[in-house]
Amino acid sequence: MELPRFSRPNQDYGSSSSSTPILYVANCGPAVGISHPAIAAVFAHFGHVKGVHPADDTGARVIVCFSEESSARAALEALHGRPCPLLGGRTLHIRYSITRPSISQPNDSLSVSLSASELDIPGLFLLHDFVNAKEEEDLLREVDARPWNNLAKRRVQHYGYEFCYQTRNVNTKHQLGELPSFVSHVVDRISMFPNTEDIADASLDQLTVNEYPPGVGLSPHIDTHSAFEGLIFSLSLAGPCIMEFRRYPEGTWHKFPSSIDLKMENSVNDSNYLRKAIYLPPRSMLLLSGEARYVWHHYIPHHKIDMVKDSSIRRGRRRVSFTFRKVRTDPCQCKFPHYCDSQR
Ligand SMILES: O=C(O)CCC(=O)C(=O)O
Ligand SMILES: [Fe+2]
Fold it and tell me: Which residue puts its alpha carbon closest to atom 7 of ligand 1?
């Protein structure tokens, strides 16, 4: 699962002293229309390929890892500096690679689940293809036609009620208006979401639209209990990401900074917490309820590339999420008082 990071060495690529089973291949990759599986298929003519990974963020340089050094040498000798008919006629520039151990690796070896059932957090549900591609395009066009608020690293829009990032709460006395009509079909579909017994009471009235550029995530947080009711729906559009969930021991969670934009994810030296992660593809709808909503922190790592089941997945030009919630008007009375700001 770990993505080894490699770099191009300075040595002469042909010298046998520098040979390794790992090749640094320039001028091919997803950015020039060549997928990692297509690259793996071509290099597999020379021996067993263990993996193809991005060499950097350009999308046009990859690392090909063979099992055997002799396979890497054969591939280098056959493919370097010549147009490759099987890869769109591109001329590949190939070197032996070396490991660069100091660079942190995406996901820190955390296995990423594809489904909520695999993740096994009570109250967490994920539905794929909740909207279709046309609906996704329309939703994005609607928000792009409206003004964005710039935060430090991402842009947001609020509907229904403004969310205040300093207090992590909403001013219930100041309603901006109804949710906009361009999300009506999404809200209607949410009311048919399985596993939400009291959905009839949900009457969602707050929407936050987040736009994340590549490499930007969201620090670990629990949406303030006293601010929002128990069902939180988040629709992913445009690009994918992974979402990590952390369950900190009772009695420690409130020591963490309260702003979701504070960089606390690496400052927590208490490693005594459970970690799980799920892949959120575009057009999927995530529901946080029960324990998933009230107890587990959710977190979007600040990655440009996520490792998901041995594939490296690029975040895309942007990810836009629509988070639907219901503003709470009475104190929270959840079953998790240790995690609840209303019951502290
Ligand atoms: O982008 C997302 O899917 C989650 C956003 C979120 O957690 C929040 O706004 O509180
Ligand atoms: Fe959140």
Answer: 298
